[in-house]
Amino acid sequence: MEKKNLANELSANSYPGRGIVIGRSAEGKSAVTAYFIMGRSENSRNRVFVTEGEGIRTQAHDPAKLVDPSLIIYAPVCVLGDRTIVTNGDQTDTIYDGLSEGKTFEQSLRSREFEPDEPNYTPRISGMLTVKNGVFSYDMSILKSNEGDPGACSRYLFSYDNPKAGEGRFIHTYMQDGSPLKSFEGEPKLVEIDGDIDSFTTLLWNSLNEANKVSLFVRYIDIATGKVSTKIVNKNQ
C-alpha cells in the first residue's frame, strides 16, 4: 500500500466528515492519535471540544443555537486503564462499558450500527490504542450501511501490532462532499506521522477545509512511561 501524505489527503478533500488518525511518532517514542470533526450545517458547526477527565467531549459553543444534540453531542475520547478509545459517536461509551465487562473491542461494537441519519447513514468509526509495558498496538473499526442500504450493516475490524515509526492509519466517515454523502471505502489509509505534537497539530488543522472544520484533538502517549500530551483546537473560541 502506498504511504500517503496526510496533509495532501486532507487538503484535497473539502469534506471528509469526521476522521481518526492513529500511529507511531517519527522517532518511535510516542503512540499518536488525532480526531477531528467538520460540519456543513449551523448545528454541526456550533461545537467545541472540551476536556472531560482523561478524555474529551463535544459541547455546544452557543447553547441557544443547539437544535438536535442526538448525533453531535458525545464523548469522542475516553481512557480505560492502558487503553485510549477514540470514536465519532456515543459508541465510545459502548466500547468503554464492554471492555469493563471483559469484552473485546470488536465484541463491544457488535451491538452498534451506522448512524440513523437518512440518507447518509454516517458510518461509525472507532479506534483503540493500547500502550502497556512499553508495547503499543491499536485497533480500528468502521460500521457502515450496505452501499447506502440501511437494511444491513457491514462491519470491518483492523488490528495493528508493533506499528512502525513514522507511520499511521487514517479513517474518515465520507469519501468526499456530496448529497447524499458516500461512506468511506476500503481499509484505513496508510499515512505519514511526522513531527512533535505541536507541529503535527498545526499540520492537521491547517490542512482541513477552512469553511467546514470545527474542532481537532491530538494526543501523544510516551510508550515507555505512559506520559500523555494533548492539544485541542476549536474554530469557535
Layout of helices and strands:
Blueprint: H1 6-11, E1 19-24, E2 30-38, H2 42-45, E3 47-52, E4 55-60, E5 77-80, E6 83-87, H3 91-100, H4 105-109, E7 124-132, E8 135-146, E9 149-161, E10 167-172, E11 189-192, H5 197-207, E12 213-222, E13 228-234
Antiparallel strand pairs: 1-2, 1-10, 2-12, 3-4, 5-6, 6-7, 7-8, 8-9, 10-11, 12-13
Brief overview:
It contains 5 helices and 13 strands. The chain is of the alpha+beta class. It has one domain (6-234): 4-Layer Sandwich (Glutamine Phosphoribosylpyrophosphate, subunit 1, domain 1).
- Secondary structure class reads alpha+beta
Question: How far is the first residue's CA from the last residue's CA?
Answer: 39 Å
Largest sheet: 6 strands, antiparallel
CATH class label: Alpha Beta
**What share of residues is helical?**
10-25%
How much of the sequence lies in strands comes to 35-45%
- Mean pLDDT, to the nearest integer, reads 97
> So what's the overall shape?
globular
By CATH, the superfamily comes out as Inosine monophosphate cyclohydrolase-like
Number of helices: 5
At CATH level 2, the architecture is 4-Layer Sandwich
Q: How many domain units?
A: 1
Order of helices and strands: HEEHEEEEHHEEEEEHEE
| CATH domain fold name | Glutamine Phosphoribosylpyrophosphate, subunit 1, domain 1
> Strands across the major sheet, in which order?
11-10-1-2-12-13
Residue stretches low in confidence (pLDDT < 50, at least 5 long) are none
Rg to the nearest angstrom?
16 Å
Total beta strand runs:
13
